[in-house]
Write a structure and sequence with these properties.
alpha/beta, 2 domains, homodimer, 362 residues, 46% helix, Rossmann fold, N-(1-d-carboxylethyl)-l-norvaline Dehydrogenase, domain 2
Chain lengths: 362, 362
């Protein structure tokens, strides 16, 4: 039994309280300043207003001003803030987090500084500074929070640079419904976890393409088109993981194909993809249909746009190997209104093996 | 422009007549003895009764007794019979097919002789005998026939042992809606193409598990579970491709992940999976709900059952690396009624790289 702090009471942070409480850990769920209504509901023993479930009674809710006291005795910090909240969290934690407490991030995204692309664990480590000596790990894989919160079965990867730390922490999370495998491929898992949102937006375009396509004799859909987009997504993810220093194996297990699969079944990224597939500009779709929604795939596109360009210009990424990524990024960031170039898929690399990609990068 | 014979007027063989005719080839579509009503409909310029579309007028329908005359002048034979029809086709072709005419198979399946597992192109080559010197190639990737027949966009791989042959034939098929990439990974593409049906049956079990699971507070589905099954399927496919002598790259492009994705969206394999996921025995589900249906994934399980056991016994395949495959094969072939062992997924290989699998196989 460990003392575990979850920072961020949104859907994913809160859902993780369930397996952790079921394992018998002492769990404190500390909301951010955006989570006040959620924490208030849990204090009243009401349902979590976004997960629509009662959390286990043993989960102790808390507000941001309790953070300093709480982390003092913590053996693990689970970071469940949104990607936009990482800077806030780093600022809060720097002065109060004991230097050896490991962190498990469930925040997903990539950080771009205009020149390079970093995973969020790398970014957070830099923000925490040299005095922090703990392991920053992350969980990837199919994890719709509302399903985890009611103990529906899933399988995930807990990745950290240190194998022993990943093994130990995976054991802390594992339950008969939450199957957790340790992995050392932190960069691979995190690149997949972030890009799957962006690519799910692309796969969702098939639904919009279908709606704007001419009627056909047998009323067929465009499932083949969606699947071709899915395959190119997986293919490009293997290129990106390799180029950013990870192991492409992440792509054909839980964090890549598995999480992309579930993300394509529904959700905000797919909805935005549908509008773009119909030929609508991103700015118009956002304003008219999704003004209040955080479309994570679009946020990731905006975060990496400048860095992606810089890396292509410097020859560190090959544009021809990323036709789908470039089309999505341009649709979101430049309001470009062009069809996805299926004819350029797979073509650049021919039948080369993915491990050969890296050889071509300078 | 080439003279092309398609043998088998089922949905896939017939659908391929569309891009081939659009490319200006002279296409003869020869039905098997099971296709008489289809060929008669095409002769009357009616719609194809299973595709529900009119084929292009330039496609010339024919009956089995026209085969000998037709293949005499052919530059390509497309084999579109069912996997159960490969022996029949080989028997028909042995005496009449000119020894240099290449074959492109769209028949999917694996051949088991109780000791080893062969891809259908390997099996067909043996059946055609040493006098046949042509290239046997195959097409893999997302290809719902009714969508291809109305020119909905998709991307596929045309794989052959000879790179130049695959390039030349891919060019013959390619249209602005049918994007065809040549590949030399014939074994990889064919193992994926066959196993995707079997694994789609497994992914479909999540729908049945959901129906028989207790009600939950927030009415969540089991999308995570389906995605975890999908990820394990891709993972095991990479193991099987490697073990059978192919390149696992096929798994994370069109023939593997792409085709599995589309196969999981609907169809007979998913329907059967749902019954098994609800806890029903295969024999009962088949008899009660799908007595007339060919469930391709189940056919593949039956075809490889004995060979799979023999290869595991000889240490050529590791049972611990194939928990999902073994569970599906046992459900279908032994009428076993057990839950899918999620807790054994991914575990056997830890964080090894897939290219290391082969080292463990004798």
């Amino acid at each position: 039994m460990a003392n575990i702090i979850i920072l961020g009471a949104g859907v994913m942070g809160s859902a993780l309280a369930v397996p952790l409480a079921d394992r018998g850990h002492k769990v404190r769920l500390i909301g951010t300043h955006l989570d006040d209504d959620i924490i208030a509901a849990i204090r009243r023993h009401d349902i979590h207003p976004r997960l629509k479930v009662h959390l286990p009674d043993s989960v102790l809710p808390g507000s941001p001003d309790e953070l300093a006291e709480a982390v003092g005795g913590a053996e693990l910090l689970v970071l469940g803030v949104s990607s936009a909240g990482v800077d806030w969290a780093a600022g809060k934690l720097t002065s109060v987090l004991p230097p050896d407490v490991p962190i498990v991030m469930v925040t997903k995204g990539l950080a771009g500084d205009g020149e390079t692309i970093q995973t969020l664990p790398e970014y957070l480590e830099k923000r925490l500074g040299a005095t922090y000596r703990g392991d920053v790990c992350a969980i990837g894989g199919p994890s719709i929070a509302s399903e985890l919160a009611v103990r529906r079965p899933t399988c995930v990867t807990l990745a950290g640079r240190s194998g022993p730390a990943a093994h130990r922490l995976a054991e802390w999370f594992r339950t008969p419904y939450y199957h957790v495998w340790p992995d050392t491929n932190l960069v691979g898992v995190e690149v997949c976890a972030a890009l799957k949102n962006l690519y799910a937006l692309g796969v969702g375009m098939a639904a919009g393409m279908l709606e704007s396509a001419p009627a056909v004799e047998n009323e067929s859909g465009m499932h083949n088109t969606a699947a071709a987009l899915f395959a190119e997504a997986v293919w490009e993810m293997s290129y990106m993981v390799t180029a950013l220093g990870g192991d492409p194996q992440a792509v054909w297990t839980l964090a890549g194909g598995g999480d992309l699969y579930v993300t394509c079944q529904a959700g905000r990224n797919s909805r935005m993809g549908r509008w773009l597939g119909k030929g609508m500009r991103y700015s118009e779709a956002k304003l008219r249909y999704m003004p209040e929604d955080v479309v994570e795939g679009a946020e990731t596109a905006l975060a990496i746009r400048a860095s992606l360009s810089a890396m292509i210009t410097r020859g560190e990424l090959d544009r021809n190997s990323l036709p789908m990524l470039c089309a999505i990024v341009e649709a979101v960031c430049d309001d470009a209104c062009r069809p996805i170039p299926l004819e350029r898929f797979f073509a650049a690399r021919g039948t080369e093996r993915p491990n050969d990609f890296a050889a071509g990068l300078s």
